[in-house]
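Subject: complex prediction, re-run

Hi both,

The earlier run crashed halfway through, so I resubmitted it with identical inputs.
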Amino acid sequence: NHLRHVESMAKLPSGAGKITRLNALILGEALASEEDDLVFPSEIFSRQAHVSSPQKYLEMYRRSVQDPAGFWSDIASEFYWREKWGQQVYFENLDIRKGKIQIEWFKGGMTNICYNCLDRNIESGNGDKIAIYWEGNEPGLDSSLTYNQLLARVCQLANYLKDIGVRKGDAVVIYLPMLMELPIAMLACARIGAVHSVVFAGFSAESLAQRIMDCRPKVVITCNAVMRGSKIIYLKEIVDRALMESAHNGINTDVCLTYENKSAMKKEMTKWIKGRDIWWQDVIPKYPVTCDVEWVDAEDPLFLLYTSGSTGKPKGVLHTTGGYMVYTATTFKYAFDYKPTDIYWCTADCGWITGHSYVTYGPLLNGATVVIFEGAPSYPDAGRCWDIVDKFKVSIFYTAPTLVRSLMREGDEHVSRYSRKSLRVLGSVGEPINPSAWRWFFNVVGDARCPISDTWWQTETGGFMITPLPGAWPQKPGSATFPFFGVQPVIVDEKGVEIEGECSGYLCVKSSWPGAFRTLYGDHERYEATYFSAFPGYYFSGDGCSRDKDGYCWLTGRVDDVINVSGHRIGTAEVESALVSHPQCAEAAVVGVEHEVKGQGIYAFVSLVEGVPYSDDLRKSLVMVVRNQIGAFAAPDKIHWAPGLPKTRSGKIMRRILRKIASRQLDELGDTSTLADPTVVDQLIALADC
Ligand code: PRX
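This time it finished cleanly. Structure:
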């Protein structure tokens, strides 16, 4: 189905759509719809691109789906394998009706992703190339590491970890801000076959404890504090609380390795637990700068990353080594049209999947120079990003729509006072990018010169799934365009039947790809139930999608109880369970609501314990309970006092009605007669602006 769409698209003479667009401009006519607005890459760009035309894409795509084994093993052969994989390049069963869901790629192959990121690039003569430029929170505070230096630092930490007894398969929790030490820690774990679990350093002590209790690490790696903008965050104190909580529950962590982040806080000021806490700077530099590699099977776990789902408990998404390595490297190369001379900056934090696949692994596997930034993009002012772009001559800039929208609000002058002439490719991730933000990003940031790769993917997918390939495709602002090589997305209806042509429905994938997650840590049943049961035979993404007449994909957002706030996934159930833990909260129902900057905001309906009056102080303490239990990024934007919630007679909360009230679409409430008590709706409406 997809092939047919692409084939018809590929027949368009290059530049054909331009006529439509130019005509519209010349005639001053509005385009029939946003979907018709085609933006072409320049010929100069296309000529130098890895994939220079729809025809070339089609050729590669066709092979990737008709001969996945051949396509991916050719690419995999470019990496170093201690031992080659077995006869069968991949094995998959995505059909729950046929038994256990199972995905394997390159099984039997022995490799190491850290070796492929560092040693392999050094051996090919890139040892003195900059691997990482680090930009601190304060302008002027920066440093860099070459590939040689990075390897030495990684080896020192790897040797230490081995020394304290961390072995292949052991979990290591990393709770660090965007310091060099974060990718160093990830790579050190990978080098010795340990499984890292990075927890975003904006998560609260409770969330961190929950993750620690689930994966039971021998060691937690953190730093004492970090400055974000003008605010200081005491990370070590959060870790102390989390470790206390997990110890209460019988899970003890032997070591808390703490980096002294001098620019934020001096060592002497940091609370210390003797016997457990170790200063990074005291021990790591003493270790040798070389460390033998632990060769692991392609299917051995590389990392765990917890993400939100529609039920309360975060899911430990597990990625393995070989397929993930091949997939992140390949997607990075093609979707950003990466060349060895590029300087690449992704604004994501390594605490999220984007930071795993496209700050650390994908770029380093390609031998790229990566910029990482410790601070806040609006500090000291809204021009900071472009200051960094000019400073390091960034050529590929990858960010989230929420940042684009917030900078757009600050005005063009913050952008135009910087040159940005080094930029050649822009990228977007995390949520649908609305066409007006797309255009601003394209016209103002990229001076109408840089294609935008709007990459659709997920923690679970490991890497890009639907993405433009700059230079190949005319773009449509707001569309993620076409699938990456080897990815076979389908749109299905409620019954799980594939729909053809122009349509809208649920986005599924019908075959495996190397970067796919293999299970949810310790809960394969939940893995099967969440992703493979709704539409048997397919991986279900949880997203809605429509396809236009030209075959372009338009992601329409989550269709489950997951809210996407500033590109961060938050389960409504997680926020609800935090709210109801407040002693004065009887019940809570949370929905997502459109938000100008964040994409979606969190809107919470809260019923209080009998006799408790609603007050501003109570509202603040309800918000606080969510901040403390999950993290500041999950704080509700609005608390709506609800003497009652709209429930069916069987007691089910009707979220559909709550969503309409939250977005003030009061004339679209629909049928409320099935509610146990229809008068609660009027009550809620009356209290909307309290
Ligand atoms: O709803 C989709 C949205 O983000 C979800 C995945 O979130 P997470 O696992 O945290 O990973 C974020 C970074 C990959 C998806 O289910 N999403 C991500 N990228 C896009 C997107 N929605 C639309 N367009 C995108 N480019």
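The pocket of adenosine-5'-monophosphate-propyl ester is lined by residues 307, 353-354, 429-432, 454-459, 480, 541-543, 555, 557-558, 564, 569 (CB under 6 Å).

- K.
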